[in-house]
Design a protein that fits this description.
Two copies of one chain form a homodimer. Chain A has 455 residues and is α/β, with parallel strands linked by helices. Helices cover 42% and strands 16% of the residues of chain A. In chain A, the strands form four sheets. Chain A has a seven-stranded mixed sheet with strand order 1-4-5-15-10-11-14, sandwiched between helices. In chain A, strand 10, helix 13 and strand 11 form a beta-alpha-beta unit.
Amino acid sequence: MNSDRLKVVLDEREIPKQWYNIQADMPNPPPPHISSQTFKTATLEDMTALFPKEALMQEYSRERYIDIPAPVIEEYKKYRCTPLIRAKSFEKALGTNCKIFYKYEGGNATGSHKLNTALPQAFYNKNEGIKRITTETGAGQWGTAIAMACSLYGMECVVYMVRVSYQQKPYRKIFMETFGADVYASPSDNTVIGRNYLKENPNHSGSLGIAISEAVEDAVQREDSHYSLGSVLNHVCLHQTVIGLEAKKQFDVFGEYPDIVIGCHGGGSNFSGIANPFLEDKIRFGKKTRVIAVESAACPTLTKGIYSYDYGDSAKIGPIALMYTLGHDYIPSGIHAGGLRYHGASPLVSSLLNDKLIEAQAYSQQEILEMGLTFGKSEGIIPAPESSHAIMSAAYEAKKADEEGVRKTILFNLSGHGYLDLYAYEKLLSKTLENSDFDAKDMDSALKKLPKINA
Amino acid sequence: MNSDRLKVVLDEREIPKQWYNIQADMPNPPPPHISSQTFKTATLEDMTALFPKEALMQEYSRERYIDIPAPVIEEYKKYRCTPLIRAKSFEKALGTNCKIFYKYEGGNATGSHKLNTALPQAFYNKNEGIKRITTETGAGQWGTAIAMACSLYGMECVVYMVRVSYQQKPYRKIFMETFGADVYASPSDNTVIGRNYLKENPNHSGSLGIAISEAVEDAVQREDSHYSLGSVLNHVCLHQTVIGLEAKKQFDVFGEYPDIVIGCHGGGSNFSGIANPFLEDKIRFGKKTRVIAVESAACPTLTKGIYSYDYGDSAKIGPIALMYTLGHDYIPSGIHAGGLRYHGASPLVSSLLNDKLIEAQAYSQQEILEMGLTFGKSEGIIPAPESSHAIMSAAYEAKKADEEGVRKTILFNLSGHGYLDLYAYEKLLSKTLENSDFDAKDMDSALKKLPKINA
């Protein structure tokens, strides 16, 4: 081990030239998406109303490595490679004997890993003549990233922002607007779906599922528009693998290899980004690495949901996928980690979990924010509440290893900073953090509404 | 020129081991500070009530290179070296033929260059047994940096935050609190000075000069406390030279050398950080580099102030220094670039300007925010309003060179990001930006109150 190194930074020339597609290696790649209109395998026509062809090719590809377009690499160069950092001060704060590393994706313009997929998605759309992208955002990280990518490629961007976030995070809204995006609180007046929800309840606080429905409805209305999703889908997870691919090169420089790889899990893209390149080594070359997806105890899709076909959005107009789900009608409580408030999960991650190639853990809002603060005070980076879930798991695994008398090397993805989410920490510090329980009865009733698919 | 490179990142092993002290080379190093109590040269005893001895040695040193303590380098490793980036997209947006580079200091934990001096200052204080640091903050960048540094070294931190910022920037306050700092709106009830100002006006919006006075009064009351300043002083400017020293190494990799070096100027530390290492080449080796300090037209200390001895703080309890000043009683209008709202200037920068080794420019709030947005949309980083002044100057110089038919290489310091200052851009976008005029009459009357010093 090159033990006097605190971090490894790589030159822009070390940015991967290809993404890693885990579908080439996993025992059970996800089946094709199902149309919510026909209940049959979604055709290319069903999907091209929403997504660019290049992204759809990637969605179903079984090629192991897929080229990153040169113009996207040019944009990656503005902020990649991101650093791999040994968390020595955090280790000291924990009093652990383990070695903890983190890949820091928050240093870029938009403050999170989301830019890694926003750039290629915007690029592919632009190439196909699309002039306008619609999307949803919860915590605001995805909305910021796609707003910036659209600005770089000269496209319009329309963001449906979950109303509770829209109200709680005015800075996120302004941030998107500085990149020229139009931001609407969802449910909104813009769509039939939005108006229906507002009729039910004019103060509806919204959900990710509803915002997705609105963005999809908006996109299909117009020839010049496509919809863009910041997580869940296979091609989105694919784009994020630059994270893990870089991390592997950086571990080579450290002369180390992780025993445990950890990512938080909302829709699955950040987790896939850090995990999949290490899973390649596990599946193909027999590495014994443990890989852990960490979710919110208030939205425990992977740990308490079921593996089934379900709708991706609340209004049931987007594709149906085989995944872990709490039911598309399930509305999780209003936790600060807005990015982890999704009823479903990445089909890729779901299949890997079902095949026991990965594990899942869930932690409460209180404990992750406390650990996030411990991390922030020692390492100096206030983490996004989402990322704090991964930090919590790293601390838990380190403690367990200490108790077992073994010294583990642990890697987690610090997917974003929390400078625009400080409200959550303020609540923690002032001891006014809201309860954020999971309601098993709500899930049971939501699970009764799953679509019946014979695939 | 290595022209296919977009940015040069250097390894943590390339972090400078020594700071560059321009006092060794400048024609007229600043004279010693004057005590505001005795009107004579401030003794070491006068100063050790406020500052650690090591910092005071640096304040008056004429050694060209001063060692950076190894434990400080360890902390620098968490975020240094910072990248030097070619602003190709911004060049394209401007349509310029010039090559524009920026050193990006906003990628670290606290979002600005201020951490470069917060770390050594906290370290020196800790080494001398100090348990508590008091300071002021305007925009909040300095307060955040010193709060984090105190947290890393296990010291208490008390921040007097200019009231108008305290109210406008709740996130900055929470940010400091997450690092365990106590933050008070200034003028406050904590000090005699603060109470006097509040007696005059219970809703006093505060100023940097008043907040400094409060922090100084607080520090001298207690044996265990020192005061810490985020700019102006020679040792603070010294610590920032890591910026320019790294930039020179990075230009070597690019195979370039800047014709023009630009930094914004409030108290002078960020400007000195990028400029002084290039000024060494200019003074010692005859390089023809133009070096430009950029200030706010609402607080035009360098372009409209006079070169004279003046008090550093409004209540006249801190040291007196020879510098450009608008008068210690001058209260600049409430611009969003809070870091540029100081009546005085760095004595180092002032002497260099007086000797015509550097130039000064001033720009209005409207034009710098517009240019900041242009930069953000093309490069993807929303700049702090302070840094946008440097960007404006770079754009101005590029345009001028284009008109003259010459191709210049321009470097500016992007000292911080604007993610916690988005309010300023929101005002610009919604066309509700406040006027921010300079009042020459106010300055004339403030200049009548300068201390009479026979030095």
